[in-house]
Amino acid sequence: MKWSKLMIQTLREDPGDAEIDSHKLMVRAGLMKKAAGGLYTYLPLGMRVLNKVQRIVREEMDRAGAQEIVMPILQPAELWKTSGRWESMGPGMFRLKDRGAHDYALSPTAEEMVTDLVKGVVSSYRQLPVTVYQIQWKFRDEIRPRFGLMRSKEFLMKDAYSFDVSLDAADASYMAMFEAYKRVFARCGLKAYPVEADTGDIGGKFSHEFHVLADSGEDGIAFCGGCGYAANLEKAERRVAPRADAPCGEMETIPTPGAKTIDEVSKFMGVPGSAFVKSLVYLADGRPVMVCVPGDRDVNEVKLRHFLDAKKVELADFETVLRATGANAGSVGPVKPADASLRIVCDQELRGAKGCIVGANRDDHHIKNVDLDRDAKIAPGDYADLVVVRDGDICAKCGQPLAIRRGIEVGHVFKLGTKYTDAFKAVYKNDSLEERTMVMGCYGIGVSRTVQAVIEQSHDANGIVWPASVAPFQVCICLLDPDNADAAQVAAKLESELEAKGIDVIVDDRQERPGVKFKDADLIGFTVRVVVGAKGLAAGGVEVKRRCDEKSATRVVPPAEAAEAVASLLA
Ligand SMILES: [Zn+2]
């Protein structure tokens, strides 16, 4: 392919709205162009990468036994009403009406439509298991699109869905996808880590997110260097050492006028935040419950929801707080709340806490010298792991310290159970001709996001450093003297020799200075660069260098050996 024939636009300046390197480079290297907020056009170079990632995904899905289909993006509201998600998806789902005033959604995902589909096709256990997938555009009404393809309104996803006869049988489908995902990301040149994620109501270990580590990532992940445990922050668990607090004197109520937050009260009293018990009133499926955690910790609402076995937990409104405790938020605590029957649950670290400071359940007052066992009414079974872990916390599995890293989620595998098959009555007949509900799993890969994640993980100050498997072109031949017949002929010959080896090549045949060509080649990041110029040829050869190597690694080889040298660099 001749550079001069391709619509390529490279930019020297970063786009003004780009905050992270991969977003800047996608635009500067001419892979994509912003069409509107959160919407991008894939230019020819970007399209080549997107296609290569899709090809890898498709090959691995097929290899894992999944079957490709494609479902409509435009989905009738009735499907979403059947599952209850027409309401629960909230404003993040694009909705529209046809001319007959029927409601539709622009698909953000397709559990409903695929369940409806499989229900209509599968009737017997003999047809199971089945896994189908599609690579299709998805939509999300982001309030604030940012980070380029990381948070866009329109994105390309591979979504797969498995259907099995039982929860046990579904494990095999899950593991097949889990292994396929590892291969997909490895083939894309990505270091992606499977990370345990919350399983909602299913329980067990059957939800993993695949994360690419990057400082710009939006998700926090806890890693254990000791045992390899990795979990997202919703899920990550910690162990605490039993405390041995010294006995404390009698409780003493002190005025703390105007100080509401732990920070404010701790400044006011001159005591560190960790000496406080942070108390918050939540509604768990509508019932008030007080949640106490160490003053310097945050409540993990997912853990709280599981511990309380609730469908929904949310911070209580101020009237509920007042009724339950006798005070407003900021002055509430576990000692004698107004509602004596209020359930109080505590983070495990508070078990046996003495000498702490709590809200007094009286506006603008706190109590010090509190011994939770002595002064508060907390059931022994109401201590649990309820906080978000942080760097240095102790791994619950092995006792080594956890490290918190940032990650970009590029895939998710999830054992769904019967949530959707129940709603759609998607049943099959077993060998006794009894009706049974199918068990589902769902599996997503952000295809467009993966493209950008590769860049986020693989770039330097000069531009992108593409792994050969997904580079827009694996090789760029910088033809320094396009008007020189000898040089042009060497370049053309090398191009066809490489193409014969199945290697894709772009020849920079533009009338540009060498410096411009080198800068562009480094910016776009072709895996191998070959420099062909009249001067070099006169001295005996062409220059060959991988993008990821130092300048000193440049080799000069005779034109006849160039194709072989390039092929060995790519291998
Ligand atoms: Zn560990």
Describe the structure.
The chain is α+β, with helices and mostly antiparallel strands and 571 residues long. It has 3 domains: 47-236 and 404-455, Bira Bifunctional Protein, Domain 2 (BirA Bifunctional Protein, domain 2); 252-384, YbaK/aminoacyl-tRNA synthetase-associated domain (YbaK protein, Alpha-Beta Complex), CATH 3.90.960; 473-570, 3-Layer(aba) Sandwich (Rossmann fold), CATH 3.40.50. Helices cover 28% and strands 29% of the residues. It has 16 helices and 33 strands. Strands 3, 7, 8, 9, 10, 11, 12, 23 and 26 form a 9-stranded mixed beta sheet that branches. A 5-stranded mixed beta sheet has the order 17-15-16-18-21. It has a 5-stranded mixed beta sheet with strand order 30-29-31-32-33, with helices on both faces. A hairpin with a 5-residue loop joins strand 19 (356-359) and strand 20 (365-370). Helix 1 crosses helix 12 and helix 13 (485-500) crosses helix 16 (559-570). The longest helix has 21 residues, at 167-187. The structure holds zinc ion.
What binds here, in terms of ligands, is: zinc ion
Categorize the overall geometry: globular
Structural class by SSE content: alpha+beta
CATH architecture label of the largest domain: 2-Layer Sandwich
Could you please say which CATH topology of the largest domain applies here? Answer: BirA Bifunctional Protein, domain 2
Largest sheet: 9 strands, mixed
Q: Superfamily at the CATH H level of the largest domain?
A: Bira Bifunctional Protein, Domain 2
Average pLDDT, rounded to a whole number, is 95
What is the end-to-end distance? 22 Å
Q: Please compute the radius of gyration using only Cα atoms.
A: 30 Å
Specify the number of helices: 16
State the CATH class of the largest domain.
Alpha Beta
Catalogue the unreliable spans.
none
Number of domains: 3
Q: Give the number of DSSP strands.
A: 33
Percent helix, as a range, is 25-40%
The percentage of residues in β strands lies in 25-35%
